[in-house]
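Repro case for the chain-ordering regression, as requested:
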Amino acid sequence: MVDVSEAHWSTKRWAEAIEARLTEGAAGDPLVNIRRGDTREFDALFLGGGAGGRFGAAYLRAMGGRPLIIDRWPFLGGSCPHHACVPHHVFSDVAAQLMLERTFSGKLWFQDLRGKTVSMLDIVEMFRRGRTGPHAFMNYQSAEQLELEFVLGQPGRLLDARSVAVGEQVYRARNLVLATGARARPLPSIADGIGGVFNYATLVDALNYEPGPTAIVVGSGKTAIEYACFFNATGRKTFVVSRQPPLALLPDAETRRFLIARMEEQGIEFVNPAEVVSCEDDASGRIRGVTLSGSQGPRRIATDFLFLGLGERPNSEEAHAVLGVDLDDDGSVRVDDRMRTSVPGVYAVGDLVGRPMEMFKARKGGTCAARNIMGEDARYQPRDYPDFLHTHYEVCWLGLGEEQARERYSNVVVMKLPPDNPDGHTVALPAGDRVMLYAMMKPELSGFQKLVIDGDSRRILGAFHVGYGAKDGFQYLAPMVRNGLTVDELGEMDELFLNPSYFIQLCRLRAGSRTLRSL
Amino acid sequence: MVDVSEAHWSTKRWAEAIEARLTEGAAGDPLVNIRRGDTREFDALFLGGGAGGRFGAAYLRAMGGRPLIIDRWPFLGGSCPHHACVPHHVFSDVAAQLMLERTFSGKLWFQDLRGKTVSMLDIVEMFRRGRTGPHAFMNYQSAEQLELEFVLGQPGRLLDARSVAVGEQVYRARNLVLATGARARPLPSIADGIGGVFNYATLVDALNYEPGPTAIVVGSGKTAIEYACFFNATGRKTFVVSRQPPLALLPDAETRRFLIARMEEQGIEFVNPAEVVSCEDDASGRIRGVTLSGSQGPRRIATDFLFLGLGERPNSEEAHAVLGVDLDDDGSVRVDDRMRTSVPGVYAVGDLVGRPMEMFKARKGGTCAARNIMGEDARYQPRDYPDFLHTHYEVCWLGLGEEQARERYSNVVVMKLPPDNPDGHTVALPAGDRVMLYAMMKPELSGFQKLVIDGDSRRILGAFHVGYGAKDGFQYLAPMVRNGLTVDELGEMDELFLNPSYFIQLCRLRAGSRTLRSL
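-- result from build under test --
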C-alpha cells in the first residue's frame, strides 16, 4: 500500500498516481489515506466512492463523524467522471459543436465539413487522456478540503455487515453504506464475444479502431439517444433500433416531435419497433453486420460498430450473496426512505438502489444515509425532480407534459416559442446563447420551449426547453414549481435577456389578463 | 399609410414589408394597425415600441385597456433586436465559438485559425440580413397574439401630454407613456466627422469595409468589453482604452481578475487610466490612428477602426422641450415608483428613465405604467437584480462580492471552483456544457465560479459565474436569494449534473457542518 495520509498531494501529483494505476490496470498498490493516530471507530464504511459514497462520506464527516471510503478505482467520483456523465457531456458538446459547423459549412469562417467524417477514435482518446484531471481533483478535494479518509485502487470484499476487506487488510465500522453502482446491460447472448460492440463504459475504455461509416445504436432512452447524436455528428450514418419509440421518457409529444424531426434532418434513422436478432462477425471477430426484425420485416445493415444503450443493472450480487440484503425485481437493493436495507446497519445509495439513476439522487441518498447514521431521522425519496438529456441540443423538462396536464386539468394554457403560426418553425425565436447563428441564418434550428399552465390556479404545471443553457435554470425552477409558482410570480422575476428560456417574459405578456390565454 | 388592421400577415409577409422599409430608409408609408370600428378612446399612447412600450402596451391590453404604440421603426421591439441585445448576443456567440476554434486549432477536427483574421464585415452583414426575422416575429406576435394596435415606420411628434402626430395624423389618448430609449454617447469633439468610428448602433448599420488588423475600443463597461472580445476573437489586435479599470461594475475582485487574465491571454491589451486625445484621418476621411494620453505618457496607435462604448444618453430632449417633463442630471426623465413623470398623465419607462438600462427594467416599468393607467396602485423600483455580461465567456452575478460581504459581515464563507490549490487554475472544474473540451484539454479555460455566504445565518449573499449556461439559473436564483436562501436549502435542490453552476453540490458538501467553512 501507499500511505498518502500526510502527503498532501496536489492535483498534479494525484493525476500522476492515478494515470500510472489506470495504465497499469489493477496492479498498483492501494492508495491509503487513513489518519494514523486517530483511534476512533469508523461510523461508516462507504463501499464505493462515487456520487453517493463520496457525498455521503463528506456529509457524515461534516457532521463530525468518521467515514471511510473504499473504492476499486484509484480515484473518487465513481463512474461519472470515468465512464458516464463526463464523457457523455464531452461527446454531447462535440455533437453540438459539429452540428453547428456542419450547418454553416463554408459560410463565414466555418470550414467545410460536408461529406466529411470526423475521427471518433481521436475524440475518445482525447477524453481518455483528459479524464485524469477531474479524477485528480476529486481526490484532492476529498483529502484536502473535505478531510475524507479512503482506500483506493483495490476492490473491497464484503465480509459481513460491518466489515470489508481490501487485500489482506480488514476494515470495520459501526455501519455499512453500499454504493457499488450499476453496469450497462448487455444484449443477451446475441452479441456475446463479438468485437466492435460497445456500451458507454467500454466505448471510452476499449475503442481502439476507427469505426466505419455506419453506427448502430440499440435502445431508446437517454444513453442511446445521446450517443447516437454524437456518432451522427461525426459524420456517420446512424441507426437507432428500439422496441419502443424514442424519447418516451420525455412527457410532451410536441417536444418529442420537434427533437425527432431535428435528429432526422441530421441524418439519424429511427427503426422501431424493431430489435437486433443476430450479429455477424468477420475473420478478426469484429462485428460486420446485424439483422433486425421488426414491423417492416427483417433487414440487414452492414456495420463495424454497434452501441448498446439498454439501461443499467445494479451491482447488487455480492451484497445479496454475502449480506442477504433484499433485492427488487430489477436487481436493485431495496431501501426505505432512510436508505436502510433489509439488514440492520446496512444502507444502500445511488444507482445500486435503482431508478432514477441520476446524480442528485445518488448524492442526496448518500447524505440521507449519513444523517441517519449520525442519529438524525432523515428521509429522502426523489420526486418532482427536473430532468434533462442531450440530443445535438440540451433538452430540459420538469412537471407535466401538455397531454398529461389536459388529462388532469380542464383549463390548460400553453405558452411556447415558436408559437403555432403560418410559417411554422421558421421563426427566429427562441434565440439565446449558443443558438444565435441559427437564429440569424437557420431559424428553424434555434430551439423550442413550452410552459404548461393550469389556467384556473395560474400555476405552472410543466416546462420544456430545447436549446442550450437552460439546465441550471430548471434546477432552480423545480422547487418553485413544486411550491406552486404562478404565471404572475414568474412574470415578476428579472430576466437576463436574451435568456435561453423565455418563460419570464412570456408569462409577463399574459399576466395582465384575468383569463389566461395560450401564447 | 398601409392599413394592416385586417391583413393578418404571417411572419414571412412582415419580414418582406420590414425589409423593404429598412432598405428604403424612412421612405415607406407608415404601417397602421388600428381596429376600424373600435370607437373607444385610447387609454394610452406608447411613444416607442421597444421593450418598455411593447410590454406596457401588451399588459394594458391584457387588462382590458386600449393602447396604441407609435414607433419610427417599421417593427416593434425597439433597439434590442436592431442594434443592441440581439447583435450583441450574435457577436458574443461568435467570440465564444472563435475562442474555442482558435484554442484547438489543428487539433481533433478543428481547422487551423492560428494567425488568421476572420471577416468582421461578413459577420456584421450576416446579422444585418438576419435581424429582419426577429423583427417580423415581434410584429406578428404583437398583432396576432397580443392584439396590439400600432403605427409603425414614421416618427411620432409630441404635440402635448395627450397627443402625438405621425405625419398629418394626430393620435390622442387619456395618457402618454414615453418610451423613446437612449442613444450611444459620442466621443466629444475629438472624432467628429471622422469615418471608421462606430458605436453599437452604427456598427451594424453602417460598417461597409473590412477593418484592418487593429481595433481600438474606448470604454470599460459592458458594451466596451463585449465588443472588444468580439473584435479580438476575429483575430484583430484589440486595445481597450479607458479612464477606469475594466469591469468595475462586477463587484468581485477575484472574478474580475480571472476574466481580465483570460482576455489578456487572448491578446486584448488594456490601457488605463488613459484617454483618446486626438484622432487622425486619412485622405478619404477615415480614421488612421489615435493618440492616447495616460499615466504611461502619450502613445500613438495606428488603426482604421475605433469603437466607442461610452454608455448611453436618454432620448429625452423632445419630451423636455414640448411637455416640460423634469430631467435628472444625466438627461434621464425623472419618474416616481409608479413611472409617473412630473407632468400629470405622462409616464416614462425604459432606457429613457436611466439606469439600469436593462431589458427587465424596461419591460417591468412598462407593465407598472400600464397598471397605474388602468387604475391600480402598482410600484416598481429595480433592486437586487441579477446581472450579466459577455467576454468570450458568459459572466453572471448577483448580490455581494467577497470584498463587499467582508465589509458588512464578520463571518464570510466562500465556496468556489476551482478552489485555491497548489496547481492554481489547472483544475478541470468547473466543467459543464460548452466548456467540456476546455476541461479535457485546456482546463484553466473551463471557467470560474463562487458563492459568497454569511457563515452565521448560512444565507447566500452573492454568486458569480464565468462559463456558459448559467444565465437562466441566475434569474431564478435571484428571488430566492432575496428571500434569504440558505446553503442548506440550496443543497437540498436537485442538480442536473454536469450543471454549469456547481452551487447546489458545493453547498451540499458543506451543509452537514454546523460551522460553515469555505470550500
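Ordering looks correct now. Chain A has a mean pLDDT of 96.
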